[in-house]
Every structure is written in C-alpha cells, then in structure tokens.
Design a protein that fits this description.
Mean pLDDT: 95
Low-confidence stretches: none
Number of helices: 17
Shape: globular
Helix content: 25-40%
Radius of gyration: 22 Å
Length: about 450
Amino acid sequence: MNPNTARQIHVDLPPVTFNVPADADLLTVPQNVAPLADPAAAIAEALAQPIGTPALAEIISSTAPSKPIADKTATIVVSDITRPDVPYRGETSILHPILRILETQGVRPDHITILVATGTHRASTPEEKQHMFGPEVVARYPIVDHNATDASRLRSVGVTASGTHVYINTQYLDADIKILTGEIKPHFMAGFSGGRKAICPGLANLETLQKFHSPQFLEDTGATNLVLDSNPCHQEATEVAERVGADFLINVTMDEDKALTGVFAGHWRLAFERATASLAEAVTVPVIEPYDVIVTVDATINHYQAAKAAVGALPVLVDGGTLIQIANSSDGIGDVEYVEELALLMSLPHHRDYIDLICRRSTVQKDQWEVEMWCKVLDKVGGPQGLIYCTTGIEPAALAQLPLTSGYAYTGEGELAPMVHKAIQQTLSASQARLGRPPRLGVVLDGAHAVPALVAEPVAV
C-alpha cells in the first residue's frame, strides 16, 4: 500500500488508527441523520406526547385504579451490560426522567424495581451497575438481574404458535406499571433490537431462549437484519409481548458516535414500528458490487457479541472473500458455555459438522446460537483462514483456540495498530496475487449500526 495514496481511518473503540487504499469504499449510513440538538428535551417531549398511549404520568395514575398510588409497584426493564451504550445515566438518560415521573406521581422508590433483561447473559457486577445507572440510582432503587434458570421467579404465560411453553419473570408480571426501555438498532437474528425483545428473550426462561435461538429459527432466511414480517424470531417475541403486555415503552436510536438521533415512546408495538421504519431507511448501505475484502469495526465487549458485525458484512462479501474484524472484545470471549461450544466446533472436521450436530440435538445448548452464526461467517469466507480477528482484548493463547485467524499471527503480542496494519496489507497483497487485479475493499466503521446490502442499480443520492 502506497502511504502517499492511502486513506487514514481512526476509530474510538477499539482505539486504533489504520490506513486503507484511497479507493477503498467506506460503507457508512447513507443518510446522515443529525444528532438531536437537545436530547433531554426530546426525551421529555416523547414521554409527554407518546405514540399510541396517554402520557406516562397519565398511565401511572390510571393503571391499577383500585390501588392507592403509594401501594402501586413499577418495573422498568433495562438492557444489560452487553449493551453499554444505552443512555441510562447522564444528561441524555432515558431512565432518570421515568424515575422522576414515577416519584412525582407518588410511587415510592422502594416500589420501583429496575429489572435487567439479561436473557442468557451473565448478571452485572455491582461496579457495572454503578457504571450503567449511576451511584444515585443504585443507592435509591432495587436493581434485579433476570435469571433465566431460577424457576421460583418465573411463571407460565402459555404456549406460543411455534410450540414454545413460555415462562416470564414474575417481577415483571406482578408489577402494576410495566415499562420497557432500550436501543433500537439492526439485529442479525431478530431484524431489530429493542421493543419486544426486552421481554422475549430478555425476561424469558432458558427453554424459551433456547427455542428463540434454535436452528429451527436461525436457519430460516427471514432471521436476519432489518427483516420483521417473515422473521420467526420477531414473530415469537411479538407473540410473547402481546400476551404479557407493557404499559409504556421508550426506545432510542443512536448514530455511530453514540449520539441520540431519535426517541420513540408510547405503545410498545406502535412506537417500535415507528422507530424501525425510520431506522431501516437510515442504516441501509447500498452496494452495487460485492467486495473481495471487507474490514469491519466492532466496538462490542466480547467475541460473542462481535458475531453481529461479522454477519452483517456477509451480504456484500464475495463467496470465499476475506473478512478482517477489528474488535474491542475488552471482556474477552464470552460465558463458559459459549467457550465450550466454540471448543466443540473446533474439535470437528468442518464447521458444517457443527450445524449438523446442533440440528440433531434434542435440546438447544446455551450460546450454541452464536457459534451457529459464526458458522455462517465461515461458510462465506471458506473457513477460519478467511476470518482475521484483530484484538488485544483476548489473550493470544485463547484467541488461537477460536475458529478464526488470530491477528497476533501478524505481530506476536503487539499493539493493535501494527496488527491491523499488517493484516490489511498482507491480505490485500495475497488477494491481488490470487485475483490478478487489485481487490475491491469495503470498510464498515460501525458494524453494529450500518447494514450493507446489495442493490440492483445505483441509488441516487
């Protein structure tokens, strides 16, 4: 790569600066949605003038009308530590205004529970709760992590159309006032995050989570980014949410710099649909011709979460192309069950053998679904040699045990910048030698938000 004709790119998380050829395509969202000029005012307006419901203050006073306000209970469902960007503290907090309105209406602070929708993820530590919600909130309100395997805190809500017997957290079911929060962004299984996902899979039992993440759902072509109508994951989650209900929802959209671009509050389904319609148009990146090499940047906390950005790049990567993932992975690989499933994959002759194995299982094992999604990546790139994972968040010995090519192979135990530089440079050289021409290179700077998609014709800008 000629440094005189290279383009320099800097990203904040993971913090790294690297060069790509000047003719590389930066796959960024086509519509530059401006951050909200006054996020706090937008949040207040959304709570006062919601979509499809009365204002939150009105809902609080009218829900459970036979109860004195001091006896009413409220449960606010929040995202877990794997979604660290949701604004729960600070000037743009979506949580603090809700808490203020609840208390202003007369709900006692000890009757307000913040319920962390963990799904199958681990509980947050006390330090993480302080970081997510702020010390004042932690000191004033009960904060409970959902536990998908604690039968004493789960109750049946019936059987879904897919045959799943669903149990939901009793703290949520028994609350007089039920409020959902979160961020809406593309989701590589459910179409979009946010909305109904706070309940299912967020507050469901392990068996429901297993079905939600089963090959029966995930091998369906509808289980992908931005798709809702034909998406079995979305259909399951929506059916569960309809059964248990929610009194109010507030979801936000954010740009790649984590600034708020939209606030959607009100009816849990109508507000979600308004947000997803707006977001789908904003985040789709039209691509005319697939790329030979894609560099994608992932800011999430571990290898488990990084699958989203990797899978998101696949629609615009040629079969047998190379995916270079620059990953934060500050929390390592993932839970022990995930690590065990990865080890099982590595013990098999081919990654397709893993798919065959999980399709034959009588029960879905925790975290197998994320390994299944990595298998989709391996399908596209032709095996671990086509997936180059650059991170310093995972120790070299541990990274070498994963189904990928370790970035450390290029530098040893070095820093991230030289690792990324050498991975890109050597990949482009090898691709050019193989193709007999300069490879087409695309760069996705925010794999969690931008969704590249092949289009038949150029899109007018």
